[in-house]
Amino acid sequence: MIVSESVSRQIESASWIRRMFEEGIRMKKERGAENIFDFTLGNPTEDPPEDVKAALRNLVEENAPGTHSYMPNAGFPEVRRNLAETLKRDTGVPFTENHILMTVGCAGAMNTLLKAMLNPGDEVIVPMPCFPDYQFYIMNFSGKMIPVETDENFELDIAAIESKITSRTRAIILNSPNNPTGVIYPEALLHELEEVLQRADHPIAVISDEPYKSFVFDGAKCPETASIISNCIIATSWSKTWSIPGERIGYLAISPQLTEANALFQACTFTNRILGFINAPAIWQLATAKAPDALPDLAIYKEKRDLLCDGLSRSGYEVRKPQGAFYLFLKTPIPDDMEFTKILQNEGVLAVPGKGFGRSGYIRLSLTVSRDTVVRSLPFFARAIKKSKV
Length: 390
Ligand SMILES: Cc1ncc(COP(=O)(O)O)c(C=O)c1O
Hints:
The protein has helices spanning 5-14, 16-31, 50-62, 77-91, 105-117, 134-140, 158-163, 187-199, 225-228, 261-274, 282-290, 298-314, 337-346, 371-388, and strands at residues 37-38, 100-103, 123-128, 144-149, 169-175, 205-209, 232-237, 250-254, 327-331, 349-350, 352-353, 362-366. By secondary structure, it is of the alpha/beta class. α5 packs across α10 (261-274), α12 runs parallel beside α14 (371-388) and α13 packs across α14. The model has no long low-confidence stretch (mean pLDDT 95).
């Protein structure tokens, strides 16, 4: 077989979301696109912010010397300087350009970092449910993912995390606001975690995966993990904030308070190169510096969240409104989420079973669909809950 056994196994277990997405394409052909309500992928359909489009147009127009050249593997120094200033302002932590590394999206950031950090067999603790690709990123570098359940409200269980720390623990991945649950981890829990990490007998890093940082609702504020956790490394991207996931631009920010921050920055600069990324896309690096304050239109997402949550509540679903990110992690009216996903599918509604994120009894619905899709889907959700109870 030309494909390795491990990759064949990974493909088999990784195909949840994509399988539903492909099923959607088939069903749209069969039943007509207007009759299929596809809530599977977190692929923003809103237009990128105006400032971002203008910045890109200007950069192409100006075509300044070096715009399309190689630059230091960590990225353009002036772009990194700008970002460091913003992070210093927001976190109070003295970031400089030598703590910032521009990456190929957030996935590129995490792979670059894990390659630099992990020895074979090293352990990375991940609160569950989680973004399903973490396990593969960790396996890429022969690490071992150690899942830890969150509580019934999907909050961090600090005692459970502490109980999983061993001499092989190198990192903990935190994702707040969370995909799939929409939970924002409160400051108090982050302080508790910091105390646990300070007690550990070796340095353990927190990888703060923050691509949904700007997606917060009802006046909530997402705490700055780097302000609280000393050994923090931020991994993030503009994929969701600017609706540009296909463009692949993100960064790593290594806290200057981290033990051996400089060695890790040098290592990541090297791993970014040898993983074949070389550097993050040049024109997008420059665009981030030209439109530093561009944000998503949260009102659009909030309206869709409220329409969906209120409509589902009226039909008898038990709904917990997400505080942030753009997913609803919905409790299924029957315990078997696979079965309920099938019932929904028969009604033309596509969702991802919670099992794919490591928590059965739930489905994930993405709010990146149009408002019209949300409104027209509600009667079909109502029929599905009735059918599940007969
Ligand atoms: C929690 C989380 N982390 C990382 C990523 C990867 O982001 P990017 O597309 O910027 O690589 C995603 C994408 O959906 C995500 O949901």
